[in-house]
Amino acid sequence: MLINFFYTLRAAKLPVSIKEYLLLLEGLKAGVIGPSVDDFYYLARTTLVKDEAHFDKFDRAFGAYFKGVELLTDFAQDVPLEWLRKTLELELSAEDKAAIEKMGWDELMETLKKRFEEQKERHEGGNRMIGTGGTSPFGAYGYNPQGIRIGQDKGRNKSAVKVWDQRAYKDYDDTKELGTRNIKVALRRLRRFAREGAEDELDLDGTIHRTAANAGMLDIKMQAERHNKVKVLLLMDVGGTMDEHIHRVEELFSATKSELKHLEFYYFHNCVYDFMWKNNRRRFSEKFATWDVIRKYNKDYKLIFVGDATMSPYEILQPGGSVEYNNEEPGAEWLQRLTHAFPRFAWINPEPQGVWQYRQSISVIQQLMNQRMFPLTLAGLEGAMRLLSK
């Protein structure tokens, strides 16, 4: 009954074989899992996918085949899901939004604590309790210029101070085929060639010179190949508002990996704090301390941030401002440490440059980057590469 599922995976360019498909059937026949879509998902992924780089493709193919089947996730939070059931979505005018008062950081956190103690039932359309479709700072599908998003599937106004959900991010696909070669051409401005390795390339000028000196007897001279010696440390924002820019960031990531031999990359979310990661599925279990990253790489590495810099300003300036955990030091401190450790740095922003002036957090990041922020356009990439190559 799963033959069509097998063909769906093959159509998604996943390298699954008949042997792996039969192994999946054997596992089902042996009853190693219960009657659960979640259990089947993990069994199928374990038996059919041998490389973590293909997990994202598998997830998309799995969702396409079993469309309509929702995977339930236990967020292990104390907020009843019934309180967050979406039945309306608030739409306000610009005047209405301007009239809603902002809370400060300390007041926001203290008020949330009180709401948890007070609230006993679901609320909708209000301005005070944890609910939906209102102007309260706590809940989903409403509006508040500085609130805590609880139970909403994705960001809408890009102004949440914290997000009360466990979210799964996808690694960027570095094998993605580019729709254009222009990004690679822009990256080639960042080059410094040197010869290294075994002598396996013909030195034409040297061969001619030695042959002439040898009275016309052919005397071949070999030399090492020329390689780009530029070293790049790439730090990429992932998840949240960056989901809107996945396609272009994957193009940039793919081009960077193909053009640069000495490339190291890490992920962060919104702003860099005391740790980063290389695998989004294990970002809390396989963390890399930012201090260790700073100490590991020399100053000759060129530092490139890729992110939309769109977040609450608290996430940059406030201890505990991260939407995911209570960071002891503000993100601004870590950004300054990184840019001090790697003097040649730039920030690539996929957000349209026309909206930068309307985002307070982008203005803050620009100041921390000494105005070295460039749009993710061909002109922007060329400008960033010119700056980094100096």
Structure summarized in a few sentences:
This protein is of the alpha/beta class.
- Terminal Cα span: 61 Å
Portion of residues within helices:
25-40%
Structural class: alpha/beta
Return the string of H and E elements.
Answer: HHHHHHEEEEEHEHEEHEEEHEHHEHEH
Count every beta strand, where a strand is a DSSP E run of 2 or more residues: 14
The main pleated sheet reads as: 5 strands, parallel
Please state the average pLDDT score. Answer: 77
- Count of alpha and pi helical runs: 14
The amount of beta strand, in percent, is 15-25%
- Given as residue ranges, the uncertain stretches (5+ residues, pLDDT < 50) are 68-77, 176-180
Query: Rg, please?
Result: 26 Å
Overall 3D form:
flat
Name the strands of the widest sheet in spatial order.
1-2-3-4-5
